Amino acid sequence: MGSVETLNASSHRVRCQRCVLSSQCFPASVSGRDLEALDRIVLRGPSLTKGSTLFRAGETPVSIFVIRSGALRTFARSASGAEQILGFHLAGEFVGLPALHEERYEVTAAALQVTAICELPLAELEAVSTKVPAMRRHLLRLLSRELQHNQRARLLLSVPRAEVRVAMFINHYRARFHGRGLSATRLRLPMSRRELANHLGLAVETVSRTLSNFRAQGFIEIHGKELEITKPERLAELTARGISFGR
């Protein structure tokens, strides 16, 4: 799948009430007829393959999306064509939220692995949201949260010490897992070391060395794509230094 148009063309309706991620997509106050109204607009297309694009920077937004399984990266390109990864997005999270108020997608979203997507067409979502105020408030909260994530990413890049950047990333990632009701100590990282280094503004060798140092100090254990946090308090201390630096 290479574009939003492909997703739209092959989509079909899906019942949100049967989805285990429903509580993450919609506020608890949305139920009964209101949830049925949202059910009627949600589309599900074929899964994205690794590396394929959901939407591209500069395209006119037609939908926002929820990741049902898998993971995406969002990135922008410089004038020279260099890619800067701005964020990683996990199952149960919305993607493309700025489309609620922007005339163009500002970033490109691509799959880090095989990824299943639910689509909420903007026109239909707007119509339903006028009848379901709780959903409108929920979307505004999600948009505000995304702005906070973007601010955190800018802060992260301003921190000079590599170990603090990596610790801040792990702690933020850990908080997102915890917020989804998952383990806050065993994290699956869908991105490669190169992609993580790009996001952190560091060399791949620096990221690998920092993770190795964390492991040697007993802060973490690494098992393939899985990272286990064994001393969260030490990572929290490093993160606090980064937050203090940004003030």
UniProtKB/TrEMBL annotation:
Gene Ontology terms: cellular component: cytosol
Name all Cyclic nucleotide-binding domain ranges.
35-120
Which Pfam family name is an example for this entry? Answer: HTH_Crp_2
Q: What PROSITE patterns does the annotation carry? A: CNMP_BINDING_3, HTH_CRP_2
Query: Which GO molecular function entries does the Swiss-Prot or TrEMBL record give?
Result: DNA binding; DNA-binding transcription factor activity
Write down the InterPro entries for this protein, in alphabetical order.
Answer: cNMP-bd_dom, cNMP-bd_dom_sf, Env_Response_Regulators, HTH_CRP, RmlC-like_jellyroll, WH-like_DNA-bd_sf, WH_DNA-bd_sf
What keywords were assigned to this record? Answer: DNA-binding, Transcription, Transcription regulation
Q: Quote the CDD domains the UniProt record gives.
A: CAP_ED, HTH_CRP
Record SUPFAM superfamilies: cAMP-binding domain-like, Winged helix' DNA-binding domain
- Provide the HTH crp-type domain boundaries: 160-233
The name this protein goes by in its record: Transcriptional regulator FNR
Protein species of origin: Stutzerimonas zhaodongensis
Higher taxonomy: Bacteria, Pseudomonadati, Pseudomonadota, Gammaproteobacteria, Pseudomonadales
